[in-house]
Every structure is written in C-alpha cells, then in structure tokens.
Write a structure and sequence with these properties.
Elements: E1 4-9, E2 12-16, H1 21-43, H2 47-61, H3 66-84, H4 97-114, H5 124-140, H6 166-172, H7 190-202, H8 206-210, E3 217-219, E4 225-229, E5 245-248, H9 251-256, H10 258-269, H11 289-296, H12 303-308, H13 320-332, H14 337-344, H15 350-354, H16 363-374, H17 386-395
Antiparallel strand pairs: 1-2, 3-4, 4-5
Length: 409
C-alpha cells in the first residue's frame, strides 16, 4: 500500500503510513483544531498591544472623570508590565493558565513595592477583574482556545471611611484656622478654613469643592442659595452624571460667613474665578492635591486631621469622613434614602426624590428643609467666623511662605 499524504496548509501535510489507516480517522477529527490553532498563532497580535486595545474599548464604553481614567489606565499598564515585562514579544495566543498564575504571584509584589499610601493599590481583585475582561474578550475573538479566569482568594474588603464623632468634630474645629488669634505661624489659605465646613454641611467630594468657581454659587427663583456641582469651567470634572447636582447652602454655612466670602471673591476676580484662588489644576490630582496633603498628609490619618484627632492615625479616617458623617447624620435623623443619595450625587432625577414626599414643594426648598432638619451636630461653631480668618489671611499678604519651596501644583 502507498503512503497517504493529505495537504493541510502551506508547508504542512498529514502523512499516514500503510497499515495505520484507522488512526487516520482519529487524526482527522482533531485536524480542524490543529488548523485553527495554527491560524490563531499566525494572526495573534502582541499581548501588550491587545491590552491597550481593550483599555481603549473600556474607556469608550463609559464616561470617566480624568482622575478615574488615569487610575484605570495605570491598572492596565501594570497588568501589561507583569504579563509582558520579561516577554515583550508575547502574543495573545500565549495567554494561558500559566500566565494567570504568573500574574497572581507577581502582581501583589509589584503593588506593595509601588504603594505610596495606606489605601492605595491594595485591592488586587480589581486587577483580576480587568485581567478576566482581557481574557474573555480574547476568547470571544477566538484569539485563545479556551476561557481563562482568575478566581481571587477573598481579600479584606476595601476600607470604608469612618465617620467623625461630635468629639472629633469639636477637636477639628478647635484648630488654628478656627481660633480667634490675630496671627498664626501657619500659612493661611482660604481653602484651609472653608473645605471642612463645606464638606460637613454639603457632603461634597474634595475635588468637587476644590474646583468650585464663583459662578457655581447661585440663588434660584425660589430664593434658595445653592452650590452647583458641575463640570463647566477650565479643567473641571465630575465623577459621573449622577454627580451633577445642586446642594442647598444651609444656615450653618451662612453663619460662618460663606456668602460673604463668595461676594468678596466675585468682587475681586469676577464670576469665573476659582473660589479658592490658591489652588491650581494638576492633570493627575486635579484641584485637590494640596488640600489632600494638608488634611491627610502623605498617608491616611496624618496631616491636619491626624494632628487634631490622634486616634485617626490608626487608619480609616480621611477627608471622605466628612462626607460619610454628613450621610450618616441625615440617615439617623430619618431623612429618606433617596434624598441622601441625591445630595451625595449617587442618584439623579428630581422626580424620584420628591415623588412620594414633597409633591407640592420645589426641589431646592425640599432639600434645604431636609438638610436643616437632618444635620444635628452637637458642636459649637458660634465663635467661628470667616471675618476673623480673613484678617489673618490679609495680615499674611506679601509674606514669604513658610517651609521648603514647592512647585505650584
């Protein structure tokens, strides 16, 4: 008998020697898989390029603030570094269970090595979910032969910011920006006075407050003074569309002199001026870098907060704690969940908020009533006035700033 030779593709043939014809049937059943594997390898792109492709799809599908986009991009880059750092020519077709095991072994080491704060980069499950997405898309596009998925070991849940107690708040509002001294050693900036009470009485995120401009402080047709959280202005951003909202300015903020401060800024630099002129934009840290350093220091619990509430150095407290305190106080006062979510920027749609509770009252009036009713802080702010701090600030005008020189970030 003659040798049977079956051409499969260019340069590849299936050869069957005499007497092994029965084995030929077995080979033929696997032939399509062999051809598919060959073609898959031939057309497979570099894994590093494919990861970038998936990243671009990821960013196109959903709106992200510049800071969130930067964080997501950084995570994809770390995945690429672990997977292809020692194999720059690695193709998508090489992605297999061994690559997944390599990622699980090396990624946590990289994250710990590059960790800059107590709360950054510790949740590897976020990275595993991104890897699973990359692998799933590769399988869907027939770039790998079987699905790959990392099932992460249960890790410690992301730490939720702890709320401040009334005792904590009393300590924080007893610090140098809120004393009646005529001069202080520290550099007086307007944001150092205003950001804490604004966060405590509006629930605003740090960068939402830092990027405010004079024209964001408005009064509506119902006579309610409001802070408009939006992305209208130079390099302004919001976390998502639900973050776009208007928060009533309560009586406590007015008593501190907030509207007087806004008027001063309007008269000094006009409607488009930053509310806090000391702050500037940074592509990565937006407008909140210096305030974050001031209140939280280089790690959670340090800075102004850790200095005045030493127990917060144990971790769990940061500037987000003002926002959480705001939410929990409203909840404890019986304010509807939908109202709290609306004020925090977790829920959009005024009709959803007011449908069952405030059918005959304008939204802004309803929200102001709920804030006044629900924010029951047992702290004395009666002696704290912007006018006193303004005198300190003006007294420092022209003074050389203390500490080592820094770039204007």
């Amino acid at each position: 008998m003659n040798i049977i030779k079956i051409p499969v593709s260019t340069g590849l043939s299936l050869v069957c020697e005499p007497g092994n014809e029965d084995s030929l049937n077995i080979a033929l059943t696997h032939l399509s898989a062999v051809i598919e594997s060959i073609n898959r390898t031939k057309k497979s792109p570099l894994l590093s390029e494919y990861i970038e492709t998936v990243l671009n799809r990821f960013l196109r599908e959903t709106y992200y603030s510049p800071k969130s986009e930067m964080m997501i991009t950084s995570r994809f880059e770390k995945l690429s570094k672990v997977l292809t750092g020692e194999r720059p020519d690695m193709k998508v077709s090489d992605l297999d269970e061994e690559a997944a095991r390599t990622l699980k072994a090396e990624l946590p080491v990289m994250l710990r090595k590059n960790q800059r704060s107590a709360s950054q980069g510790t949740n590897v499950e976020t990275y595993y979910r991104l890897f699973n997405r990359i692998a799933n898309e590769a399988f869907t596009e027939n770039l790998i032969s079987k699905p790959i998925k990392i099932k992460a070991t249960r890790t410690k849940k992301s730490q939720i910011s702890k709320p401040f107690s009334d005792a904590d708040l009393t300590c924080l509002f007893s610090g140098w920006p809120y004393q009646t001294a005529h001069q202080v050693d520290q550099d007086a900036h307007s944001y150092r006075f205003w950001l804490m009470p604004l966060a405590l009485f509006t629930g605003g995120r740090l960068n939402e407050l830092c990027q405010l401009r004079v024209h964001d402080i408005i009064q509506d047709v119902h006579g309610v003074d409001l802070i408009s959280i939006n992305d209208h202005g130079h390099c302004k951003s919001i976390k998502n569309e639900q973050s776009r909202r208007q928060i009533p300015i309560c009586s406590a903020l007015k008593a501190l002199g907030f509207l007087d401060f806004v008027l001063e800024r309007r008269q000094a630099e006009g409607e488009d001026a930053l509310l806090f002129p000391e702050l500037t934009y940074h592509p990565t840290h937006l407008y909140s870098r210096n305030p974050s350093r001031f209140f939280c220091g280089p790690r959670t619990g340090a800075g102004y907060i850790g200095e005045h509430c030493p127990h917060t150095r144990d971790g769990g407290w940061n500037f987000k704690s003002f926002r959480r305190t705001f939410a929990l106080r409203l909840e404890a006062s019986g304010i509807p969940t939908g109202t709290i979510a609306f004020l925090l920027g977790h829920r959009s749609g005024s009709s959803d908020v007011t449908a069952k509770h405030y059918l005959s009252t304008p939204l802004s009036v309803c929200m102001l009533e709920q804030i006044e009713l629900g924010l029951t802080y047992q702290i004395d702010l009666s002696q704290i006035k912007w006018s006193n701090y303004r005198s300190i600030l003006m007294g420092q005008a022209g003074r050389r700033k203390r500490g080592r020189p820094t770039t204007n970030l």
